[in-house]
């Protein structure tokens, strides 16, 4: 397969950088969730707050739509992050 034109290669490199940044943000989020869970355990609080999660999903969906990102995509991403957090309970 021939090499892509330089402008395509540059755009792909930019996409790769964004993907790596997203993964770094997910790692940071997971670390913060770990801290929240540790503090909740120490305080004897429930680890999962369904009402907060519902508000969070709605807010992230609206934020995404304001940024021109389909709300459904944002909701799937947020729910995947929440499922990851629940797996750490």
Number of strands: 0
End-to-end gap: 47 Å
Major β-sheet profile: none
Please, how many helices? 3
Based on secondary structure, the structural category is mainly alpha
Rg measurement, Å: 18 Å
The overall pLDDT, averaged over residues, is 97
Count of all domains: 2
**Helix content class:** over 70%
What gross morphology would you assign? elongated
Query: β content, as a range?
Result: under 5%
Order of helices and strands: HHH
Low-confidence stretches: none
Structure characterization notes:
- The model has no long low-confidence stretch (mean pLDDT 97).
- Helix content is 80%, strand content 0%.
- It is built from three helices and no strands.
- The protein has two domains: 1-45; 48-89, no CATH class.
- By secondary structure, the chain is mainly alpha-helical.
- Helix 2 packs antiparallel against helix 3 (71-86).
- The chain has helices spanning 6-43, 50-66, 71-86.
